[in-house]
UniProtKB/TrEMBL annotation:
Key words, A-Z: Cell membrane, Membrane, Transmembrane, Transmembrane helix
Record localization: Cell membrane
Tagged with keyword Cell inner membrane: no
Principal place of residence: membrane
Name used for this protein in its record: Na+/H+ antiporter subunit E
Homology family: Belongs to the CPA3 antiporters (TC 2.A.63) subunit E family.
InterPro entries: Cation_antiport_E (IPR002758)
Keyword Transmembrane: yes
Annotated membrane topology: Multi-pass membrane protein
Organism: Actinophytocola gossypii
């Protein structure tokens, strides 16, 4: 590992370890010595695994990204619920109006992490499924063409771009 890569990794660990520790404490709610030591060890293990997986510095999350993530998760959670209700209505209807379609949606100018986030968000949403991710588009299967048009309108894409900007700002 080169000297500059080591310093980037060290900076990443120094930025992210406190965030991981805070996340652990918030989730655990335990403040006994043993559990705090085990929490510190788990944070160290997460940092080690992230480094070994190549998720540090240029590819991993940052504090601005982590601060934008809850808002995105709330939004995608709402979208999942709304889509689930729509799919259930269509499928349980006496005359289901299902017209499966496959089309490509734009995904140009995104980092690999943003493309994966976008494709996974499409798949999380009931009624749509990401089939393939290219450099500039995601191929999507949908139960109805209207869902493909909604993706082309770009609300989800804009939200993923904003989330990715938060990640890039933390570098």
């Amino acid at each position: 590992m080169s000297r500059s890569t080591r310093s980037e990794t060290t900076r990443w660990v120094l930025r992210m370890a406190p965030l991981f520790a805070l996340f652990w404490v918030l989730l655990s709610g335990h403040f006994t010595t043993l559990l705090l030591v085990l929490g510190a060890l788990s944070v160290a293990l997460v940092c080690l695994l992230a480094r070994r997986a190549g998720l540090t510095a240029s590819a991993g999350a940052s504090i601005p990204h982590a601060l934008r993530l809850p808002r995105y998760l709330l939004w995608i959670g709402k979208e999942v619920l709304v889509s689930a209700v729509a799919v259930v209505r269509r499928v349980w209807s006496p005359r289901p109006d299902l017209r499966p379609a496959v089309a490509a949606t734009p995904a140009a100018g995104m980092s690999e992490l943003a493309q994966v986030t976008y494709a996974n968000s499409i798949t999380y949403t009931p009624g749509t499924l990401s089939l393939d991710v290219d450099e500039d588009q995601v191929h999507v299967h949908s139960l109805v063409p209207a869902d493909l048009e909604a993706l082309r309108a770009g609300a989800m894409l804009r939200r993923v771009h904003r989330l990715d900007q938060g990640r890039r700002a933390g570098r």
